[in-house]
Amino acid sequence: MKIKSIKRHSIVKFGMVSVLASALSIAAAAATIANPVHGTFGSVTATESLIAQSESIVALAGSFVAAEAPTTGTAQIIEEDGQRYVVLDSAFSTTDMAPDLHVVLETSEVPPGSYSSFGSFVNLGALQSVTGEQRYPIPDSVNLSEFKSVSIWCRTANATMGYAVLGGSSSASIQ
């Protein structure tokens, strides 16, 4: 029993020493960075000490309008760190009465009330929530120049609840 107790004690003690050593290393690094010497921050150059911020570029955006159900808010297509997304803003809202809702990119500005052919859209997945901000990754293979709107589609009833016509943004153009 004493051996187990000693082992546990030494592990706890070693763990505390590691935490203390890590804290001291961080404090020393901060002190080094705080005292610049000849254009560098100790052994770390100024460019290495900067933290890269991810930048979102809005390429397309549109406001939702109702089709089969009241749908409000804005859809944007953004690029962030090389990945494209459809982003529904915090004002987004649609019906909670329709089952199996999906977010789709549509080739026409005004999507059909129901689809007879399923080749005119790309399904980005099930709607995460009927309200609020959410994002959906767009596959790299999708050429956004072919798509004119984002819609909320009920797969079970094959009905479009609402859609947002995508217009250009002054920020950038994403293909």
Summarize the structure.
This protein is α+β, with helices and mostly antiparallel strands and 175 residues long. Helix content is 21%, strand content 34%.
Which helices and strands, and how do they pair?
Elements: H1 2-34, E1 40-41, E2 44-45, H2 46-49, E3 56-66, E4 74-80, E5 83-88, E6 101-106, E7 121-126, E8 134-137, E9 149-154, E10 159-165, E11 167-168
Antiparallel strand pairs: 1-2, 3-4, 3-10, 3-11, 4-5, 5-8, 6-7, 6-9, 9-10
What keyword list fits this structure?
about 35% strand; 2 helices; Immunoglobulin-like; alpha+beta; 2 domains
Low-confidence stretches: 1-53, 170-175
Mean pLDDT: 76
How many structural domains can be distinguished in the coordinates?
2
* Structural class by secondary-structure content: alpha+beta
Count of DSSP helices? 2
Q: Which architecture name of the largest domain does CATH use? A: Sandwich
What is the CATH topology descriptor of the largest domain?
Answer: Immunoglobulin-like
CATH superfamily of the largest domain: Superoxide dismutase, copper/zinc binding domain
